[in-house]
Structures are given as structure tokens and as C-alpha cells.
């Protein structure tokens, strides 16, 4: 039995059919991949919402965890700016009393941890006059505190919990830290000329 030869138009038609089948298969695979990616993204978003709800969902404990994030970010930036040897880490403060994460107590620990580096800073800058040492040191730690506060706020905003009492407590903490740094400067150098002139 003789097989008739394939003509050029038959070969072109077969190639088009094969090409269309490949394209259709590719499109189907891309659609499945997109659906899978979409499903994974939705599952991840739901999982993140569940984690946020578990961590911050209402009540005092959620506020404590937010203050822990704030504290950790600020202390990390201070430690990075000034050195790790005197670092106060979250591990050291894991299970503490109920008011441990109040704005006053959190600000106190941050200020105390940051100001504890002053002696080291003085030793590193022995030729600098004392007023310049104090001002330069406060400038360095204030920038680190601002950076840490900003990073903590971004984290909490990303988790959609940086509002209400959490935001109020974070802002109160930052304000108290500023007061403590000003009190430190005044203790070292006396009242500033502006205050003395009033």
C-alpha cells in the first residue's frame, strides 16, 4: 500500500495545529500558575492577618507586643550606632510585670540603655570638650532613636495595627525619651542658655 506524499500546505497546516496546541497548553499552564500564585498570595495574606490578630488583636497583650516591637527596633538601631557590648536585648526582657511595656517604663529602659553608652563615647573622644561630647552623643543617639521609631512604626503600619492606643503609646514613649535626653543634657551641662535667660 502506497502512502501519498505530504504536500507543503499539509505540512504547514500540521505545523500550525501543533503550534496552536503548544500555545494553548502554555496558556493553560500560565493560567494554572497564576491561579496557584493567587491562591498562595491569598493564603499568605490570610495567614498574616491571623498572626496579626493573634499578636495584636485587642486587649492589653496586643499593646504590649506592639511596644516590644517599638522597643526592639529602637534598641537595635542604638546598638548598631554605638556598639553591642552593653545591648539590652528582647531576650533579657521577655517575661516581665504587667506595666513593663507602659510608655513610661519602655521610655525609661530605652533612655537608660542609650545613655549607658555615654562613658564609652567620652573615652572614644577624649580631646572633645565636654559640652561638645554631650551634644554630639545626644545627636547620635537621637538619630538612632528616630530611625528605630520610624522602622517600628513602618512594621506596625504594615501589620495594620499602628493606630488607637498602640500609636498613642508609641508617641508618648517617644516624647518621654526626648524629655529624658533633655534632662540628661541639663544634668551634665546645667540649664541651656535659652532656659537660663528666661
From TrEMBL:
Region (Disordered): 1-44
Domain DUF5610: 65-184
Coiled-coil region: none
Protein name, as recorded: DUF5610 domain-containing protein
Positions with biased composition (Polar residues): 1-23, 35-44
Bias kind Basic and acidic residues: ranges: 24-34
Alphabetical list of InterPro entries matching this protein: DUF5610
